[in-house]
Structure formats: structure tokens, C-alpha cells
Design a protein that fits this description.
The longest helix is centred in the C-terminal third of the chain and has 29 residues. The chain has a domain of 193 residues: Endonuclease III, domain 1, CATH 1.10.340. It is 65% helix and 0% strand. Helix 5 packs across helix 6. It is mostly helical and 292 residues long.
Length: 292
């Protein structure tokens, strides 16, 4: 059912925009246009690209410019301008690193599969952006589908609700002939501008904030343990001192006991009794006196 709705929608869109012409420019300019025009009207992207090209001498100078200079040239009110400029500079630097110039002329003689693989691997480009460059710059059989186009096609019942971007691109591309890809892309883009999705932009995803990281928690615990260990080391010192004092007091008690024993066994006392030996007969003499 959805395939028939999609075919009828694309046929009606092409009939309403037969005179639409693709924007002029080589592959590098088409790359810049794809980055600036994702999920917004194509004419807005053309105005943004014109501002950037007028503000700098060439694309190479633009590639080496600062972010603030690019933002001022593009305009502070440009939709998602900061994010787009980051992607743009990353993509241009990748192209310069491959080509050593701001030109993708090396792709002209290659097959369509090689061209698409080259574009899909450029850093900074989304799948839809690479598909737009492939369609407009190399006339590849591809109808780019970005998030806004996907949401509008789902609202119209032309695609299933569970359809993702790459699957949507494949379905829309198979619904058109190879020579109608550019015309279909421009007509579909204009149809989305006239029939924007009901909910756009989508609601931002709320990411929970991780309040207590694991690393700071471990450091805090280590700081608390260190003072406790220091207290344990200091406390035993006072306890050891009383024990030492008790031992010192016990030692003097033994020292005092020894001097008391020495006077009893003093050598001068032992010499004394040697002289009174003659007094022993004196006692019997007294007894004889009493008898008289």
C-alpha cells in the first residue's frame, strides 16, 4: 500500500516542479551545499553557500579559516550553523588530504560504485549528504532522503513508521528511473518545503547527567583513610611511655634493697668483734665476785 502511495506522491511532485533546475557547481561546491542544506529548504542552503563564497577568496582559504570567522560569514541565525561548519571543515580537509587540492576531479573517470564509496567515506558527511553529492555532481541513480524528508513521507503514509534513512533512500530510488533521479530529488525537496512534517524539529533526546563519577569518589575515600592511619600511629606512643615509667620504678626498688643488705654485712662490723674477745672472761669474774 505504501509503495503505491509513494509512487503517486512522486509523480505528483515531479509534475508540479518540472522547471526545477539543479544548483550549479562542481563536486566540491555540491558537497558544501549538501552540508549546508540538510533538513532545511534548498534555497536557504544556496544563500548560505553564497555568503561563504563571498566572504573568502576561495574554498581553500575557507577551509583554513577559524570557526568564528566562518560563523560570522554564514550568519549567527543560520539553522544549526555551528554544527554544519564543523562538518564542512572536516569534509573539506578530508578531500584536500586525498586530492591535495580542493577538487574531486579524480572521480570523473571512475565507475558509479567507486564514486559512491569515495563519497560515503568522506569524514563529516552523513549518508544523506553523500547521496546528494552523488546525485547532483555525478548524476548517480540515487534520491537522497534526509530526516525531514523521511518524517514528511511517513506523515503522508508513503513510508512505514519503522523505516530508517538508508532503507528509505533505497525505496525511493527504486521507485524512479535512472534518468529521473535529479528531477525527483528536486521535486521531492520542494514538496517537503510545502508539506513539512507535523513534528519538526524532533524533540531533543534528554541524556541523564552522570553526577558522581567513579574516579573522584575513590580519591575522596583515600583522603579520608589517610588521617585515620596517622592517628593510629600516634596513639601507641603515649601508651608506650607509661609502660617505660613502670619499669623504671621497679628498677629503683631493687637498687634500694641492695644497699640495705650491704650495711648489715659491712666489713667494719666484722672487724669489731675481734677486739672484745678478752671481755668474755669478764662475765665469769663477776659471778665469782657475787660468791664472795
Amino acid at each position: 500500500m505504501s509503495h503505491k502511495v509513494l509512487e503517486a506522491l512522486l509523480k505528483k511532485a515531479r509534475a508540479a516542479h518540472k522547471k526545477a533546475e539543479p544548483p550549479a557547481g562542481d563536486a566540491t561546491l555540491q558537497l558544501m551545499l549538501a552540508v549546508l542544506g540538510s533538513n532545511i529548504p534548498l534555497h536557504t542552503a544556496e544563500l548560505g553557500l553564497d555568503r561563504l563564497l563571498k566572504a573568502f577568496v576561495d574554498v581553500n582559504e575557507l577551509r583554513m579559516s577559524l570557526g568564528d570567522e566562518l560563523q560570522e560569514a554564514l550568519g549567527v541565525n543560520y539553522p544549526q550553523g555551528r554544527e554544519r561548519l564543523v562538518r564542512l571543515i572536516e569534509a573539506l580537509n578530508d578531500v584536500f588530504g586525498r586530492e591535495h587540492q580542493m577538487d574531486m576531479s579524480s572521480l570523473k573517470g571512475k565507475g558509479k560504485r567507486e564514486q559512491r564509496e569515495y563519497l560515503d567515506t568522506i569524514r563529516g558527511l552523513t549518508h544523506a549528504m553523500a547521496a546528494q553529492v552523488f546525485c547532483l555532481a555525478f548524476e548517480g541513480h540515487c534520491v537522497p532522503v534526509d530526516e525531514r524528508t523521511l518524517a514528511a513521507l511517513k506523515d503522508a503514509g508513503a513510508l512505514e513508521e519503522n523505516c530508517d534513512l538508508q532503507h528509505a533512500e533505497n525505496i525511493v530510488t527504486r521507485a524512479v528511473k535512472a534518468g529521473e533521479a535529479v528531477e525527483t530529488f528536486l521535486a521531492l525537496h520542494a514538496w517537503v518545503d510545502a508539506n513539512p512534517p507535523k513534528v519538526w524539529p524532533p524533540k531533543p533526546v534528554v541524556v541523564p547527567v552522570f553526577v558522581a563519577p567513579a574516579a573522584p569518589a575513590k580519591k575522596a575515600a583515600a583522603v579520608e583513610v589517610a588521617p585515620a592511619a596517622a592517628v593510629k600511629i600516634v596513639v601507641p606512643a603515649p601508651a608506650a611511655k607509661p609502660v617505660a615509667k613502670a619499669q623504671v620504678k621497679a628498677a629503683p626498688a631493687k637498687v634500694v634493697a641492695k644497699p640495705a643488705a650491704k650495711p648489715a654485712a659491712a666489713k667494719p662490723v666484722a672487724k669489731g668483734p675481734a677486739k672484745p674477745a678478752p671481755k668474755a672472761p669478764a662475765k665469769p669474774a663477776a659471778k665469782s665476785h657475787k660468791k664472795k
